[in-house]
Amino acid sequence: MKKSIKIKTDDYNFKFRVSGLIIKNNKLLLVDMDDSGFLCLPGGYVELGETTEDAVKRELLEEVGKKFNISKYLGVVENYFINKYSKKVHEISFYYLMSPIENIDTNNFTITENDKGHKIKLDFKWIDLKEVNNYDIRPSFLKQILESENLQFNHLIFNDIII
After folding, report:
1. What confidence tens digit (pLDDT) does each residue in 54-71 have?
2. How many domains is the chain built from?
3. What is the CATH number of the domain that holds 78?
4. 54 part of a folded domain
């Protein structure tokens, strides 16, 4: 079994992640993981020895159950935030615009993912792009990106941790 790239210390958690933007009929696919109360993009950890491109395709197949191609590299984000357990998180995440290889409908759906023995409830929701401001989407900077015409953001750094 390959190892996900993540580190936990007493002060910080580090995550190396990928996320996929899936848009169909001006709707964006978002997910609520384990009834967190907020929505995020589907994706997950990069594994040791794996490219971010392979990781995003693998993660979307695991979570959405469909194969995707990468349409466009959008950017990388260094994000520093406090998680729901009051732990500081340093996250590096690569973002890709994805296109399905096979048909995908825009009905909401729920699955239970078996992530290396850990069961995770995933509630997928299709949200109209014009209504993203009506939802709690994390990371919070995504709303600005989703409102832009080209979705390009290259390399951004967001620090929500007050030092």
Report:
1. 999 999 999 999 999 999
2. 1
3. 3.90.79.10
4. yes
Q: Looking at the domain assignment, is residue 163 inside a domain?
A: no
| 8 Å CB contact between 82 and 88 | yes
Token duo for residue 36: 């967190």
Amino acid present at 158? F
State which residues form the domain around 80.
6-157
102 HSE (CA, 13 A, CB side) = 6
Residues linked to residue 18 through DSSP beta bridges, in sequence order: 44, 94
pTM of the model: 0.91
| List of residues 6+ apart from 100 with CB closer than 8 A | 22, 24, 66, 67, 68
Tell which residue, 130, 155, 148, 140, has the closest CA to residue 40: 140
162 found inside a domain: no
